[in-house]
Amino acid sequence: MNYKIDNFDTNGFAYPFKLSENFEPEKLQEEYYNFQSKCKDFLNYNVSLKPNLLSTFFDKLAFDKNVISAVKKIIGDDVYIWSSAFFPKEAGEGKIVSFHQDNPYWQLTSNNVVSAWIALTKSDEESGALSVVPGSHRNGIIKKIDVKNARASYLKGEKTTSEKDLLSYSQNLDDYIKVNSPKCLELQPGEFSIHHVNTVHGSGINKSLQPRIGFAVRYVSSDTKHLIEKKGDSAIHVCGKKNSYFSDEIRPSESFSRKSIINHEKAMKAAGAFGNKKYVFDKK
Ligand SMILES: O=C(O)CCC(=O)C(=O)O
Questions:
Q1: 150, part of any domain
Q2: Which residue out of 115, 167, 191, 198 has the highest number of ligand 1 atoms within 8 Å of its CB and is therefore the one to mutate?
Q3: Ligand 1, from 32, 93, 130: best to mutate by most atoms within 8 Å of Cβ?
Q4: What is the CA angle 49-270-55, rounded to 5?
Q5: Which residues does 33 contact at the CB level (< 8 Å), separation at least 6?
Q6: In this predicted structure, what is the pLDDT of residue 153?
Q7: Looking at residue 52, what DSSP letter applies?
Q8: How far, in Å, are 31, 89, 212 from residue 121 at the CA level?
Q9: Mean residue pLDDT across the chain
């Protein structure tokens, strides 16, 4: 890693950064609800994973020049987008994201992997902002998760966590969190933070009266592979060297076009589609 950014090397996270485009405060949230309403019309299910393959708006955010520039300063010039996800927490819903590191779930061969968490709404202490444990990325994998193989469990549609948890499996880091205090990364809509694949992170209940929604994009260096998927994986090439292990996911030229729907369906079978299968595929 290059780590040439705001103490990322020491902390395992950096924030706040601004998207290159100035959006009206409500615009990003509107785009999210508009996207989900189109999902109902075109697909008849909610989408939380890889929405940027269906929507030119979220594609544009994933390729925002300020995001890419910050990512390149950390993981270098050879970059793919491996996955992305919405993390919505409506007011009064009681949803949480239990504390975890990403790599036990993602099973990637390199640590040259970061997430940009883009705030689509205000995200603060009250609304259950993303919180991170400073320096925890230096501890390696702290604990195993409660399923043997996250990818296999995902394919079977297993979920071991409570209904309120946006994650499907637990790393049981409650004791770790008691002695290693998380820092709350408060963001305004249109701002973003970046965290390392091994940074312990999670978030609490949204106690505000407004939704708290994040769009997290996963960037990997080109030499990254999946540990289990030997046949290959798919990802979007961003810049620099390519990796023959990844087949190219196609960026949408029109939102919800037939081509983008087929491309998204195909990408959902790849290793970068993971998580709570029920949440992703539930018919509405
Ligand atoms: O949105 C959150 O609260 C958690 C996000 C998260 O776990 C991630 O981006 O990896």
A1: yes
A2: 115
A3: 130
A4: 35
A5: none
A6: 86
A7: G
A8: 11, 10, 6
A9: 92
Cβ of 105 below 6 Å from ligand 1: no
Question: Omega into 16 within 30° of 0, i.e. cis?
Answer: yes
Report the pLDDT value the prediction gives residue 6, as an integer from 0 to 100. Answer: 74
pTM of the predicted protein model: 0.94
Q: Check which CATH number belongs to the domain holding 105 and give it.
A: 2.60.120.620
DSSP run (H or E) holding 201: strand 201-203
Counting the structural domains of the chain, the total is 1
Find, among 96, 131, 108, 97, the residue nearest to 218 by Cα: 108
Distance in angstroms (rounded) separating the CA atoms of residues 196 and 118: 15
pLDDT at 154: 80
Residue 154, domain extent: 8-281
Q: For the segment 206-255, what is each residue's pLDDT rounded down to a tens digit?
A: 999 999 999 999 999 999 998 887 777 899 999 999 999 999 999 999 99
What is the predicted pLDDT for the residue at 283?
Answer: 37
